[in-house]
Amino acid sequence: MLLHGTDALKEAAAAGHALPGFVAYNLETVQGITAAAETAGRPVLIQAGSSPFKHAGREALMRLALDAAAHSAAPLGVHLDHSRDLEEITACLEAGYTSVMVDGSHLPFAENIALTKEAVRRARDHGAWVEAELGALPGDEDVSTDAVAQPTAMTDPQQAAEFVAATCVDALAVAVGNVHGFTKDPIRLDLDRLAAIHDVVPVPLVLHGASGLPVEELHGALARGVAKVNVNAELRRAYLEAVRATLPAALPGSDVVSLWAAGRDAVRDAALDVIGRLTPRAA
C-alpha cells in the first residue's frame, strides 16, 4: 500500500526510530526492498530517484516502484531522491510519488531557499511531503569511495532554523560528518552539532550516507532527531557480491534468472539488517 503523509516520519521521530530510505535501480532492487518491508512489517521508502533514472529511465523506474508499493501489503512510500530539477520533481509528483527530496545544497543559501520553496509549493498541490538538504555531503551516490567529510561544509544550526522557517519543508537532510558510500575508517558523526540542529529545527532530520555507519553512531543520531536514514551502498554491495557468488554456476547455462534472483534476495536481506539497526535495542 502506498504510504501517504508524514505520520510514519513523525511517529519514528517520536519513538526514536527511523524510516529507512532504500535506493532502487531496477526491478530486482525494487523487489528486494519491497520483500524486506513485508517481512519486517515496517514502513519503508523506495527511493527511485534522479541518479537511478539515468540507468533505468525515469518513466520505467517510476512505474516499477509505484506499482510495487501499491500492490504490497507493507506500507511503502515512493520517494524522489536528490533532485535538482523542478521539472523532474513535477513529473514524479504527477505520477504519484508520495515524497520528494529537492537538493539545493550546491546553491548559495538564498537560492537554495528559493528552489526549495517552489518544490514545496508544487508538492502541496499533490499531497506529497518534501525533504530538503542544507550542508554539503561528500562522496558519490552510486560509486562507493573513501570520501572525507569537510567540517566547513557541515550544516550550521542557526542557518538550518532559518532555512526550515523560510521554506516550510517537512524534513531536513543534514551534513554532520556523514558521507556517501563506504569509507576506509569508521565515520564519526558530530553528534553535538546534530543535537544543536535538533534543538532549533522543528521538523524531523534526515541522515544520508548511512551505509557502514557504526551502530553506536547511528543510534546516537536517532536520539538526536534523525527520523529518516538513507542507505544505498550496503544494498549495492550485497547485490554485487551475490551475483559474483552465483556467476560461476550460472555462466555455463547462461542462467541470468539465478543471478537476478540472488541479487534480489541479497538486497532483501541487507535491507532487513538495516531495518533492524534502525530500531534501537532499548525501544
UniProtKB/TrEMBL annotation:
Keywords: Metal-binding, Zinc. GO terms for biological process: carbohydrate metabolic process. Pfam families: F_bP_aldolase. InterPro entries: Aldolase_TIM (IPR013785), Class_II_FBP_aldolase (IPR050246), FBA_II (IPR000771). Binds 2 Zn(2+) ions per subunit. One is catalytic and the other provides a structural contribution. Zn(2+) 1 binds at H82, H180, H208. The active site is at D81 (proton donor). Zn(2+) 2 binds at D103, E133. It comes from the Bacteria. One of its GO terms (molecular function) is aldehyde-lyase activity. Its cofactor is Zn(2+). This is Class II fructose-bisphosphate aldolase. It comes from Streptomyces cupreus.
